[in-house]
Amino acid sequence: MNIDLHVHTQERSACGQAPAADQVRAAMAAGLDAIVFTDHHRLAPAERLASLNATHAPFCIFGGIELSLDDEDFIVLGVPDVRLEARAWSYPALHAVVRAAGGFLALAHPFRYHPDIRVDLEQYRPDAIEVYSHNTPPAAAARIFAVAAQLGIHPLSNSDAHTTAALGTYYNVLARRPANERELIAMLKAGQFSIHNTPLTNRTTHGR
Ligand SMILES: [Zn+2]
Ligand SMILES: [Zn+2]
């Protein structure tokens, strides 16, 4: 099952250039089976996610969030708490809230804005780190893999798509189809996926 854990929508991201429904259709056309909406400091309403899922099943749409704090960006899944939308988080505080909720926490596009990582990943270990995305410097890949190995966390490949055209190149292939968001998070934490960074041009060659 091909999943992209980092997708933006026009409805909730000022920089988003495609509405949610267009992102879903483009993801399906690109050969993905599931996406996670991670708008900047905004959660997708549960009713909206339910209606998109009902319309596009068996394609799956999950709701997450992207937070900018302490000079880094993080994607969070499995914490449907409106307090996340506040901009005042520190990384240790966010880490505690995500852990308490049993959510999934990943560092998005490290080294995008500066040549170092500005949070303490050793003391506050995320679950994963984005090694590939449209906004991760390709030259940083080896360094990011090294950070992942050192911390014992999983590398991820996500689009960080703000347009429909950005979908389908960076994605993760889950070992099986999760029954729900909790199972998806468990699989991600257990590393039951592989990462891909080449276009999904022939979907029949990929496991669904
Ligand atoms: Zn953005
Ligand atoms: Zn993003």
Biggest sheet architecture:
9 strands, mixed
Beta-strand percent range: 15-25%
Q: Report the CATH topology name.
A: TIM Barrel
- Name of the CATH class: Alpha Beta
Arithmetic mean of pLDDT: 95
Radius of gyration: 16 Å
Contiguous runs where pLDDT drops below 50 for at least 5 residues: 204-208
Q: Helix and strand succession?
A: EHEHEEHEEHEEHE
Helical content stands at 25-40%
**Shape type:** globular
Task: Please write out the topology.
Layout: E1 2-7, H1 20-29, E2 34-37, H2 46-56, E3 60-69, E4 72-77, H3 91-101, E5 104-108, E6 128-132, H4 141-151, E7 154-157, E8 171-174, H5 181-189, E9 193-196
Parallel strand pairs: 1-2, 2-3, 5-6, 6-7
Antiparallel strand pairs: 1-8, 3-4, 4-5, 8-9
The structure holds zinc ion (2 copies).
Q: How does this model look, in words?
A:
With about 210 residues, this protein is of the alpha/beta class. About 25% of the residues lie in helices and about 25% in strands. The chain has one domain: TIM Barrel, CATH 3.20.20.140. The protein has 5 helices and 9 strands; from the N terminus they run E-H-E-H-E-E-H-E-E-H-E-E-H-E. It has a 9-stranded mixed sheet with strand order 7-6-5-4-3-2-1-8-9. A hairpin with a 2-residue loop joins strand 3 (about 60-70) and strand 4 (about 70-75). The longest helix has 11 residues, at about 45-55. Mean pLDDT is about 95; it is low at about 205-208. Bound molecules: zinc ion (ZN) (2 copies). The site of one zinc ion (ZN) has 6 residues, from loops.
